[in-house]
Write a structure and sequence with these properties.
Layout: E1 3-10, E2 20-23, E3 28-32, H1 39-49, E4 78-86, E5 98-106, E6 111-115, E7 118-119, H2 122-131, E8 141-142, H3 146-152, H4 155-166, H5 168-285, H6 290-524, E9 530-533, H7 534-537, E10 539-540, H8 545-551, E11 559-561, H9 564-576, E12 584-586, H10 587-590, E13 604-607, E14 612-613, H11 619-626, E15 629-632, H12 635-643, E16 647-650, E17 655-656, E18 663-664, H13 678-787, H14 791-887, H15 890-893, H16 895-950, H17 962-977, H18 984-1045, E19 1048-1052, E20 1063-1064, E21 1067-1072, E22 1083-1088, E23 1095-1096, H19 1102-1119, E24 1124-1128, H20 1136-1149, E25 1154-1158, H21 1162-1165, E26 1170-1177, E27 1180-1187
Parallel strand pairs: 3-25, 3-26, 8-24, 11-12, 15-16, 24-25
Antiparallel strand pairs: 1-2, 1-4, 4-5, 5-6, 6-7, 9-11, 10-14, 13-15, 16-17, 17-18, 19-20, 21-22, 22-23, 26-27
Helix pairs in contact: 3-19, 4-18, 5-6, 5-16, 5-17, 5-18, 6-13, 6-14, 14-16, 18-19
Length: about 1200
Amino acid sequence: MVYIKKVETRGFKSFGSRPVTVNFEGQFIGITGPNGSGKSNIIDAILFAIGENRPRMMRVPKLSGLIFDGAGQNPSTSARVTITLDNTDREISVDNDRVTLTREIRSGGDSVYLLNGKKIQKSTLSELLRLALINSDGLNFVPQGMVTSIADKDSDEKRILIEEVVGVAQFDEKKEDALKQLDIADRKLEVAMAKIGEVKKKIDSLEGERNDQLRLHYLENERNNIKSSIINQKLEDTKTSIETNNQLIIQLSNEKIKLDEELNSINQQIKDVETKKQTTLSQAIGGASDELLDVQINLSTKKDQLIKLENQIEEYTTATKKINDSLPYLNEMLSENVKTANQSEVTINTLTETLTRDQNDLDKLNNNMKDCDSQRNKLRYSIIEEEKLLSNINQQLRTSFDKKNKLNKLLSDSNAKKLILTEKISNNQKKKIETETVINLISNSISKLESLKSNQEESLSYLHDSNSKLATRRAQIESELSKAVDILTKANQQVIKHESKVEAAKEITSKQNVQTKIKSIVDENSVTGYLGGTKDLFNYSDKYKTALEAASKRWSNAVFVEDMPSLFKVVTLIKKHKLGRVALIPLSDVADFEKAKTPKNKDVLGSLADFIKVDPKYLGIKNFIFGDTLLVSSAKAGYILSQKGYRTVSISGDLFEPGGSVFETGSISPLANLFFDSKSLSQIKSSVNNLRDSIQKRKSVITNLNSKVKEMESDQQTQNLGITKVTSELKNLQNMKDRYLKVIEKTTKTVNHLNNQLSTVSSIIITQENNLLEVDNLIKEQKTKVDSQSSLDSQKNKLNSLDDEKTRLSTSIDELSETIRNNESTVTKERGNLEHNLKNQKLQLTQEITTLEQELKDKNEFLNTSDQILADLKTNVESLTDQEKLLSDESRKMKPILDALDKEIKSHTKNKESIQKRIMENTSKSQNTENNTSRLSDSINTYKNNLNELGRNKIMEYFSGAENLLLELDKEYNYLRTRVNLLADEQYRDIYFGYKGFSERKNQLQKERIAIVEFIEGIDSEKRDAFLDAYQKIDKEFRSIFAQLTTRDDGVCKHENCPPGRLLHGDAWLELDNPDEIFSAGVTLMATFPNKVPRDIVICSGGEKTIAALCLILAIQGVKPAPFYVFDEIDAALDAVNSTKLAEILENRTSKSQVIMITLKDTILSRVDNMYGVYHERSITKIVKHRLKENKPKEMKISNIVKD
């Protein structure tokens, strides 16, 4: 605990320019002395040392007033105060058992602060002391007038006092900082949202263009995919065709081999037939002469030659005719081929030149397009920048209009406030006049009531003397009567007690007899289904007998039957024999009855049913009677469980019904103990009656006395009531007068305060009007800037013109590109036709014509020489025939055989010619196939080049209708090319990434805003919780201290509900005016002083107000204790009794805090540890010390501790 050990001054106020030291020993320090001696200057010195800078708190007009003025001698040039604090507990963050705080101020007003002799900044020192709960702003110091000031505070100011204790300011500072951050976040968010809106418009504008561009890229990609698919399909088809041709060539080659083999076979057959013919001739001639044989052989040979020659001539003649027919056609085809090739070359050359020109034109158009796009992009960027600038100006303009609206609202609010203040001033002035009138009326009433009160007091004095004599006599008789009544009461109690026991015994005996009678009647009438009573069915240990009898009291005379028919039979017998009320339980209705679930509790021994032995078939009866009751170890456990809804009974027989609302205890005594001698009871009753008669006589005497006393008391009471009423009215009128006087004072202050507020509001209105004028001027300037942004329209018009130019260029480019593609396609086709068709056809035709011409020449030469050869052969054949006829007739017989062989030779020769023709056709077809394969191979290379140009790594599968789809895509592609902004995607990405950045920034700002709002809500919640926590603690402490301070030792509470001997004390408490809005409402101090009604302390007397306010101060200090407290005459308005109780409270506080108190009351000074006397000597304050021991003053040992 930090406490003040010593205060040293030099040149400070009235202590003079010499050093003065005050050693504070003990925890309860008293300071006293005459008025004006300088007692409060000790408090001022302590305040000055810990850093107080408000002159009014130290009762000077300015800080330089703290310097000793010299008292008519030499004044000091500076004031210096040092206080030494005990820091054994290290509550001040300085590693030293003692801490010295020094402050010196010079006449210039500058202060120097020292901590343990070293300079320190005031802010650092204040923070160290604040952490140790030492603060001049709090309730460490209670100067003169503070108690009265707190008593006169309104409810809002009292709430603020509690807020200062809680430290609400730190919450408000945090909230204010958070609100500033929230305002900044809102403005940043507003700017971000505005930028996002602008960027979003641009994104929306570019998104369509970007989609067109992406669509164009997609179309281009799809077109290339489909083109590659078509070309690849053609490539595959061409490969298939080549493969087919290769197979055909192989097939033709195999076929030619077969034909060659067939030709060789036929040649061999012809040779074999000719050999056979020669052999036949040889056999036929046999023994003919050699000449005939030679003739016949020669004839046969010549005939063969003749046939061959005739056939060859016929063949050559036909072939020559065919050649002559074919050559003109072939020459015509060749001529046409040459003509077509020449035309194709001309076409190719013309198209090539056209392509060169078109490509140059296309390059120019593309360059123009690039220039146009460049200009459009620059212009678009310029427009965007212009729009940004215009948007910023518009945003500024909106901000200015918002500011203007706010200023207009503030101005409107200020004017309204001014009007309200004016009206309040007028109302308060009227209120003051009306209150003064009421005060005059009250003063007249007070004078009249004081006169009436004097007369009533004289009459009351006479009645009081007469009544005292009668009261003395009555008291004597009442004393005797009281003793007799006590004896009579005790005797009656004993009689009643024994009579009740007798009745209980009779009842139990009667019930037991009923069960016995029922059993006897049932046996006599042979009633089936009767089971018996509780004692017949249940067996249990004597340990639990008391508990079982207590729990089953309501079923003690119950009997049990098998079922409802049995029950009706027994009921009939009971009524017949008039046996009274009997409980009947049918086993059939309770057979399935289950006992209640037993809770897990160490005090629960189990269900009471568990401690009873019974035949298993009667288990339902046992559970029905005992199953809802728990057997517990003690009455306390039974009561606790009954509060939870259980029926419980202890072993000793204490029974608790569920809810604890019914409790039964005691034991059932044996019947023998209930009966006693009836004669003795009669004698006691006779004595009691005699005593009752004697008492009745005494009461008659007292009644007469009471009648007289009551008459006098009635008169006295009437007088008392009159005096009380007059006194009360006087007090009320005086209080009312005081309140109205305070109302006038408060109204005057209120009017002055309202006038000050009105002056302030008027100044604010002037400032707001000037600010509004400045905003209007700013708006005009911003509107001028907006109007000056006319170039934006011209730039947009220029952009539209460039868009039209781009459209025109795109159309031209597309048309020219289409022309170039068509021409390139035509050139490619023409070149392919020229290279692969015309030239090959020309070569083939030339070769074929040359071959035919050579063949025609050879055949013509043969035919030219064959006529002579034919004539010679015919001549030879005729000559040899004649010669052969001459030589032998036998040769005629062999002619049919030779003719058959000749015919066979002709057949083979014809087959040979057919095979030779097929061989020629095979050769021609094979040549054509090879030429076609060559052309297809060239096409493959072209297709591969085309695929390479398309650059497709993966080729999509060909599908039916691809060519038609390509035509549709080409149309859309060519349409879009004329309208697409080729930089749209790039521009979109740039703006989108900017938008994304803005969006992320917006999200971040929103998160920051939400966090700030949550932080503010948390601060508000924490602030409210802290306030309510402190409020409740202060309220509790306030109630306790008020009760202590207002306890009266000279009287006890007479209230009928109060326990005997309870001391009478007041009650006080805090009330929130509006618990829902605690920081906009006030806190009211309510108090009930002994024998008075509850009321707000505002309407209490001055002394009562002081007590309540002082209790509030002590309550606040008790909730937030400081290491030391300094009080300056807080007991000035208290009487001796209240001062004594205050001293007791403060003395109890010294166990935790040091108390330094300036007082003039002996009741306080008698309890302090050390007392310091303060007095003046030649205008200089001096101090003497007086130690008290065991609360008894000893001889004063005066030591002037003012050092030279």
